[in-house]
Amino acid sequence: MVLDLFVAGIAVILVALATNIRGSGSTGYLSVALYQIVAFSTTLQTLVTEWTQVEMALGAISRVRTYILDTKDGNLPNETGHVSDKWPAKGAVVFNGVTASYDASTDPVLKDINLSITPGEKVAICSRTGSGKSSLVSTFLRMLELQSGSIYVDDIDISTTTRQAVRARFNSPPQDPFFLQGTVRENLGPLRVATDERLIQALQSVRLWDFCESRGGLDEDMNEGTLSHGQRQLFCLVRAVINPSNVLIMDEVGGSVDADTDALIHEVLQKEFEACTVIAVVHKLHTTLDFDRFVVLDKGRIVEEGPPRELLERPGSLFKALYDSMQTEER
């Protein structure tokens, strides 16, 4: 608006001068001058718009540079160990006397956790709300510091290697899916480690390919607004499928989806991650009865563990009490 008024003012001044100064020029010259003023308006608007974009880009670069230079390394001095590119090659996980709290002044949320998981085993973690199941996952991903104890993966203490290595080597689909600005292909694998055929196959495994294909396929811009919550969870699961790891961590990924989507998630787990170690925090117990083992927490401690069918038949079982209460709620 300001630029338009500025150019209009120049045009008015030009016309006023041309009409009041004798012999200042012909009508043709005046027409050309007015045309050039209109063209100058467009050029000036483009210049201001582009300059604004450059300023925004320079500001973003400055903030990124400041973050890189000023942000402290999240690793502790002893967390400098390097691991093999193939780690974890097996997926054996051991929690050895793990105790952890969110603050040194508060009671531990995990107390003396001892748990051994064999390669390829599917283990479900369950408990009442606030008993520490999500905290257990947080310690594994190095987001919650240990007060004592250790966690080993394939005989390597994860506290001795960098946090980036730990989080990059384990698959952990988020509860709240995150999408990048870009195409479907870029959102599935920004590093492009999988072929288009593999991407399509993975989308077909969670029944999302028909949906994506109808909207332009892999080259279509990602619009998360067109996806339901369940489809977003499935999309994140596809990312785990095409970026395989021998350890998969899931924190109630299917806790807020409908029954059909939850069943599909567990079908994909059994098919695509058959040889992987799976540690899943679960809320809907009846959909995970095909897991090898359940671990039941209460007030930060392991109080029960074993095959689900066996726990359901055990007298006084806390797992059975949780299972029965959830069945009652669903009715």
From TrEMBL:
<dbReference type="InterPro" id="IPR017871">
    <property type="entry name" value="ABC_transporter-like_CS"/>
</dbReference>
<dbReference type="GO" id="GO:0016887">
    <property type="term" value="F:ATP hydrolysis activity"/>
</dbReference>
<dbReference type="InterPro" id="IPR003439">
    <property type="entry name" value="ABC_transporter-like_ATP-bd"/>
</dbReference>
<dbReference type="GO" id="GO:0016020">
    <property type="term" value="C:membrane"/>
</dbReference>
<dbReference type="InterPro" id="IPR050173">
    <property type="entry name" value="ABC_transporter_C-like"/>
</dbReference>
<keyword id="KW-0472">Membrane</keyword>
<keyword id="KW-0067">ATP-binding</keyword>
<feature type="domain" description="ABC transporter">
    <location>
        <begin position="93"/>
        <end position="324"/>
    </location>
</feature>
<keyword id="KW-0547">Nucleotide-binding</keyword>
<dbReference type="GO" id="GO:0005524">
    <property type="term" value="F:ATP binding"/>
</dbReference>
<protein>
    <recommendedName>
        <fullName>ABC transporter domain-containing protein</fullName>
    </recommendedName>
</protein>
<dbReference type="GO" id="GO:0042626">
    <property type="term" value="F:ATPase-coupled transmembrane transporter activity"/>
</dbReference>
<keyword id="KW-0812">Transmembrane</keyword>
<keyword id="KW-0813">Transport</keyword>
<dbReference type="InterPro" id="IPR027417">
    <property type="entry name" value="P-loop_NTPase"/>
</dbReference>
<keyword id="KW-1133">Transmembrane helix</keyword>
<dbReference type="Pfam" id="PF00005">
    <property type="entry name" value="ABC_tran"/>
</dbReference>
<dbReference type="InterPro" id="IPR003593">
    <property type="entry name" value="AAA+_ATPase"/>
</dbReference>
